Amino acid sequence: MERTICWFANPMEQEAQELARGLRRRDVDVLDRLIQQYHYRLFRYLLMLAGRRQAAEDLFQETWVRVLEKGHQYNPRWKFETWLFTVARNLVIDLLRRRQPESLEALLEAPGATRPLELEAPHATTAFEEVARGEEAARVAGALRHLPPAYREVLMLRFQEDLELNEIAEVVGAPLSTIKSRLYRGLETLRALLEGGNA
After folding, report:
1. Helix 53-70 and helix 28-50: axis angle, to 10°?
2. Which of 16, 55, 69, 145 is the 20 to 30 A CA-CA neighbour of 126?
3. Is the pTM here over 0.85, yes or no?
4. Which domains does the chain have, with CATH numbers?
5. pLDDT score of 132
């Protein structure tokens, strides 16, 4: 049976198809390109979940190994970053379960658990604006650390990683209604913290 090739395919669809073919072939050049493209975002997400730089670095390496091993499972209908963050999140959960069989939220809220956030301050035109933005970013990061992990994760995926709500639902493995609720409650809690000066 002969395959039909669609010559009018969307360039993004073609790129996703090429990416899927490269991952199925375990193409090292494709993997290198993906690592360069998603390095910062993936590490930032893992650091937020794991709370420790060493653990995030180990998980970062393991995520890319898993992408290489399981690349044949990537479906080009999905955005790659949604699949990538799902792989990374599952590795974090596996790591935390090996330490102690609890939920991700409970482990991240354990006493002494650190949750550093690296918020990138936008480029400022003056030194004063840069300092002010840095202080505001630090204030927001401080407030985010006080949020329950479930809210913090949804806010990070939505506003730092720019994922759509349905993509966040895929990453987190929760219904869309739960994601909407966590986003709303997270924003309300964050607003209250920032307005109350408790950040």
Report:
1. 140
2. 145
3. no
4. 10-116 (1.10.1740.10), 119-199 (1.10.10.10)
5. 61
Residue-wise pLDDT tens digits, 19-54: 889 889 988 888 889 999 999 999 989 888 887 888
Average pLDDT, the chain: 78
Count the neighbouring beta carbons within 10 Å of the beta carbon of residue 9: 12
* Largest CA-CA distance found in the chain, in angstroms, rounded: 67
More confident residue, 164 or 124: 164
DSSP string, 53-117: HHHHHHHHHHHHHHHHHHGGG--TTS-HHHHHHHHHHHHHHHHHHHH-SS-HHHHHTSTT-----
- How far apart CA 190 and CA 199 sit, in angstroms, is 9
> For the chain, how are helix, strand and coil distributed in percent, rounded to 5?
70, 0, 30
Instruction: Report yes or no: 114 and 51 within 8 Å, Cβ to Cβ.
Output: yes
More reliable by pLDDT, 57 or 117: 57
